[in-house]
Amino acid sequence: MARYTGPKTRIARKFGEPIYGEDKVLANKNYPPGQHGQNRRRKTSEYGQQLKEKQKAKYTYGVLERQFRNLFEHAARTKGITGEVLLQLLESRLDNVVYRLGLAPSRPAARQLVLHKHICVNGQPVNIPSYRVKPGDVVTVREKSKSLEVIQDSVAGFNHSRYPWIEWDESIKGGKFLHLPERADIPETIKEQLIVELYSK
Q: How far apart are alpha carbons 147 and 127 in whole angstroms?
């Protein structure tokens, strides 16, 4: 399946935010990429703003267009505020939960851990990054994978109390997905209402 593998800094500069984590280049070049990046002063249309938010969400969570639309349609059918439900669905993806637990330094790294069967859900190996983690599920590292350097380096010094919807357990190198996060607890700066408006046209 296609996946963006190009320069991450270019995407971060496009949105003006470090969507892939800390970015030293973005700090020095906080303007769009390209030859005329510093000279662009055109006002973005309403549609352009809506499209930008959708693209930002897709790049942030590493989701393709068809997957994203399916998630939106699921959110639209679910009781609650559609935009918030959409973000909750994205947050409950297994690769994102692995990232939020601090088991990987980035979502792409978390995706790779899942694909290589280093991650278990309720004791069973799962290699599907889009697997939807449900409240009460326990996500852990496989026993034989606990010594992986990438996992040890990522866990070291990570603030495991950062996300109130996840409970970390050092003894099992993993944690429990307590409940779906409230919008106020999700740190992403995505304007989900603009995405709802885009798909509602």
A: 19
Reply yes or no on whether the pLDDT at 10 is more than 70: no
Smallest Cα–Cα separation from 132: which of 95, 79, 185?
95
pLDDT in tens, 154-195: 999 898 889 999 999 999 999 999 999 999 999 999 999 999
Q: Among 2-6, 24-28, 183-187, which stretch is predicted with the lowest mean pLDDT?
A: 24-28
Cα gap 195→61, rounded to integer Å: 14
**Number of other CB atoms surrounding residue 139 within 10 Å:** 25
pLDDT band at 151 (very low <50, low <70, confident <90, very high): very high
CA dist., res. 170 & res. 167, Å (int) = 10
Q: What stretches of 24-131 show up as alpha helix (H) in DSSP? A: 24-28, 46-61, 65-77, 82-91, 94-100, 107-115
Provide the sign of the torsion angle of the four alpha carbons 53, 56, 61, 66, taken in this order: positive
SS3 state of residue 139? strand
Best CA proximity match to 117, nearest among 100, 97, 141: 141
